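As a point of orientation, let us examine one representative protein, giving the amino acid sequence and backbone structure tokens.
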Amino acid sequence: MRRLSILVVSIFAWTLAAPGYAAELIVSDASGRPGDTVTISVSVNQEGDEVQNTLNDIHFDPLIQIFAGTNRRPDCVGVDQQPYDDWQLGASFIPQGCTPGVDCTGMRAVYDNSRSNSLLDDGAHIYTCNVTIDANAVPGDYSMACDRTILSRYDLTKVENAGCKSGIITVLPPPPPELIVSDANGHPGETVTITVSLNAEGDQVQGTQNDLHFNPPLQIRAGINGRPDCVGIQQEPDDWVFFALFRPQACMPGVDCNGLRAYFIQYETPTVDSADVLSDGAVLYTCNVTIGATATPGDYPLTCDGTIMGRRDGTKVQNASCHSGTVTVLPPICSGDCNSDGQVTIDELITGINIAQEIVPLDACAAMDINGDGAVTIEELVVAYNNALYGCGGK
């Protein structure tokens, strides 16, 4: 630490560099969205010189801050210079005495490589800093202005006209809201449930519309009302409406329908305290998807498109999208195959007999219970016996 202090005193004894840069430091650019933390790096461009030690200031906007690390100093880390590791990075907030995250407007960094008896490689990254983008930052470019640059050589002579290229933090607009169709898996002949939820990305979404496409062996059958077997999920407050229609128009469910169109609207009598927008992450509706009895194991898409979202004032959400889901069809269940290895062995048959006699619980081999009634009967034991003799799915 005493060595670093001596270097700082020596550097400040020099005058500031004049315009017309030679060797320079370079602050990298970065980009992120409001609320993100991004990393910038500072590297050295030797320009043929023999730089060994550096000092520079970096200034940041209140919406683009370098916060304090666990040691209450700037959240920056020095980078090893291979094959030497005898270096030090000292960083402090400026102005002196400021409170990080409150009134600090920049940081000062000193990189001391003098004890390694080596020069910094041209282009070497000497330290990195984590930069936090405020959640309320407006999209655009924010400068990480770099100045007060002083570079020195091995003999501590000053590099004349040293400079520093400032960096830019580009704040990107938040991603557009999207609907997310969940994945599901099941065996041939089973019915599985998928959910459709909203990732609002901070927008004020009040209503959604989307199409969901399915093809054999997947089907969304008609419910008792003749419409797709889907159910809207209650939102708080409970003034909402959901409905779905088969596509294409006038198709016959279970015959030539290959999709549906779903609408979900949250509404409330406008008041000052109304909260009539959909919550981020809210599950809007579910649908029951039937897997064909002869389906081949594999992945089958539930493609989602035609997404439209609206706000309370009736404006359309631009670039709204939908993330499609997948139904994974698993191999058919083999009765008696307790460990799911694709065959029925003698020990598994004995387990089935013990379950039928209520000597051991059904949990010992749930695959024996073909009809799911919670018990193992003689008919189910016969099926398991046949699977042992002829293989799963045999006669």
